[in-house]
């Protein structure tokens, strides 16, 4: 080809290394290549807004604009920085053989911080941050920006324990520090370590020249990784990792991971297929993650900058979080802390004809002092389905249960065998049940099995609704917050306590956390 190929490049050391690598390979094939320095995007003239052309990548748009303007013929990028949707008119022309895809940890002195509860790690990548915190949840992450050289300088000039880099970037410019650890457990960014050449779609001559550089195995693997990323609809704002490889038996493997920013939630998938039947691995891997909570997690990531509108006074589990409608941007924390009391073995080893529990906490407290097989409880009465389920699992039987303490007390008055009960309770339990029983000449032997400590905190003013699970939750919440919200209550006993302070109180149909979530979803429909 007689035409000179104009290769656009930025002026960073890594960008120049990549540009010269492509230049050398093209020249080895007999092509004439000229490097063209490209100015910043703001200096380039374009007659259409960038968004209309699909130009989004912060590290690639300068070269995209230059190519669309006709100033250059091809551009070279670190493929992990290239958006999954290229600008209109620009296409992938080649993918070079992949370099080192791993992340590495550079550190200053020694590796002792890996075993320490407190350490400071620098990275500007949400993916690296999330995976590091998933493995080391007590460590602190600080932001790290700039080119490779400046980031290393910042590591050595700050009181940080280490910083995370792409191994390929350091390898390519010969800057790998003396002290490094390969993070083999950390999934890289999709297409990390690969170099991509792009050209104009309508320039067949240039595309044919670049096609000679294409490395098929790398192209196959990074395409699957990018399809995984695209299916999840994640970019720089989502902690997503992916790695594909082909073994000697031509089996293609794809591993993918999605996390939240603090690493407390992690969804993984791994699929394999023979080469030739691998084309859907990226999409199938993403769909597997989406089906197991990934859709909700992506919504949470998208809503991270939005205001919290619902707060739960009990920490919600990941499966419970997934039940909330997308329009609910919820936060949660435990507003009460439970500690079991030591109950005398003399008391527990006695035969108890009628035992009453009004909470699962009381059952758990009793079982911390004695095993179920050592207890002689003839009849067990309780409040709540979860308490009943827990007792049946531990003791194998429940004589009778009701959804609230008042109904259980009335049942005992009517049907109890005998005139005495042993009532295991907490320090803040209501007097309703024992009062009704004693008014009807039933002796109540009350044993404080656990203590409840109110540990509420101030919540954001943007919150419109509060999820409550006990009168103690209500009391704890009001220590730091006002009652100008909607109270979503797990049962009538909790609702009664809430009505003393809240104007609008709603009660779940059944006394479970999931039912309270249903109550919230009715008001926050997607």
Automatic annotation (TrEMBL):
Residues 220-290 form the Porphobilinogen deaminase C-terminal domain. PROSITE patterns: PORPHOBILINOGEN_DEAM. Residues 348-517 form the Tetrapyrrole biosynthesis uroporphyrinogen III synthase domain. GO terms for biological process: heme biosynthetic process. Its cofactor is dipyrromethane. One of its GO terms (molecular function) is uroporphyrinogen-III synthase activity. It catalyses: 4 porphobilinogen + H2O = hydroxymethylbilane + 4 NH4(+). Its EC number is 2.5.1.61. Keywords: Porphyrin biosynthesis, Transferase. Residues 5-207 form the Porphobilinogen deaminase N-terminal domain. Pathway: Porphyrin-containing compound metabolism; protoporphyrin-IX biosynthesis; coproporphyrinogen-III from 5-aminolevulinate: step 2/4. Signal peptide: none annotated. One of its GO terms (cellular component) is cytoplasm. The keyword Transferase applies. Tetrapolymerization of the monopyrrole PBG into the hydroxymethylbilane pre-uroporphyrinogen in several discrete steps. Belongs to the HMBS family. Monomer. This is Hydroxymethylbilane synthase. It comes from Maribacter orientalis.
């Amino acid at each position: 080809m007689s035409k000179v190929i104009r290769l656009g490049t930025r002026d960073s050391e890594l960008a120049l290394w990549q540009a010269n690598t492509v230049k050398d390979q093209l020249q080895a094939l007999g092509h004439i290549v000229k490097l063209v320095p490209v100015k910043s995007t703001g200096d380039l003239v374009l007659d259409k807004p960038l968004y209309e052309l699909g130009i989004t990548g912060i590290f690639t748009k300068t070269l995209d604009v230059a190519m669309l303007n006709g100033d250059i013929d091809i551009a070279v990028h670190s493929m992990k920085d290239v958006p999954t949707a290229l600008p209109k008119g620009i296409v992938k022309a080649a993918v070079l053989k992949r370099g080192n895809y791993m992340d590495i940890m550079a550190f200053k002195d020694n590796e002792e911080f890996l075993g320490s509860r407190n350490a400071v790690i620098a990275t500007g990548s949400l993916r690296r941050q999330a995976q590091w915190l998933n493995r080391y949840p007590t460590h602190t992450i600080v932001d790290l920006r700039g080119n490779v050289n400046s980031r290393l300088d910042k590591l050595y000039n700050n009181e940080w324990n280490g910083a995370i880099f792409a191994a390929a970037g350091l390898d390519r410019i010969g800057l790998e520090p003396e002290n490094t650890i390969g993070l083999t457990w950390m999934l890289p960014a999709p297409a990390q370590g690969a170099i991509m050449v792009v050209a104009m779609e309508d320039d067949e001559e240039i595309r044919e020249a670049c096609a000679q550089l294409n490395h098929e195995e790398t192209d196959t693997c990074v395409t699957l990784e990018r399809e995984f990323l695209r299916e999840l609809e994640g970019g720089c704002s989502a902690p997503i990792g992916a790695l594909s490889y082909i073994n000697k038996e031509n089996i293609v493997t794809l591993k993918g991971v999605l996390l939240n920013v603090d690493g407390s939630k992690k969804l993984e998938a791994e699929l394999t297929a023979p080469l030739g039947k691998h084309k859907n691995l990226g999409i199938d891997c993403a769909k597997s993650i989406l089906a197991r909570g990934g859709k909700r997690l992506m919504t949470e990531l998208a809503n991270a900058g939005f205001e919290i509108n619902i707060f739960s006074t009990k920490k919600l589990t990941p499966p419970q979080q997934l039940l909330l409608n997308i329009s609910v941007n919820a936060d949660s924390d435990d507003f009460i802390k439970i500690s079991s009391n030591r109950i005398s073995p003399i008391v527990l080893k006695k035969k108890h004809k009628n035992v009453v529990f009004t909470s699962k906490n009381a059952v758990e407290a009793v079982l911390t002092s004695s095993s179920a097989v050592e207890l002689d409880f003839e009849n067990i009465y309780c409040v709540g389905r979860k308490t009943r389920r827990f007792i049946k699992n531990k003791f194998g039987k429940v004589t009778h249960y009701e959804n609230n303490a008042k109904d259980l007390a009335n049942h005992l008055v009517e049907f109890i065998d005998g005139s005495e009960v042993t009532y295991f309770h907490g320090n803040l339990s209501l007097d309703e049940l024992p009062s009704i029983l004693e008014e009807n000449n039933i002796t109540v032997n009350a044993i404080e099995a656990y203590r409840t400590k109110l540990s509420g905190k101030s919540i954001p003013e943007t919150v419109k609704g509060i999820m409550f699970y006990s009168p103690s939750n209500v009391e704890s919440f009001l220590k730091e917050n006002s009652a100008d919200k909607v109270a979503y209550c797990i049962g009538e006993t909790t609702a009664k306590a809430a009505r003393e302070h809240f104007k609008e109180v709603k009660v779940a149909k059944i006394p479970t956390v999931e039912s309270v979530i249903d109550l919230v979803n009715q008001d926050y429909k997607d």
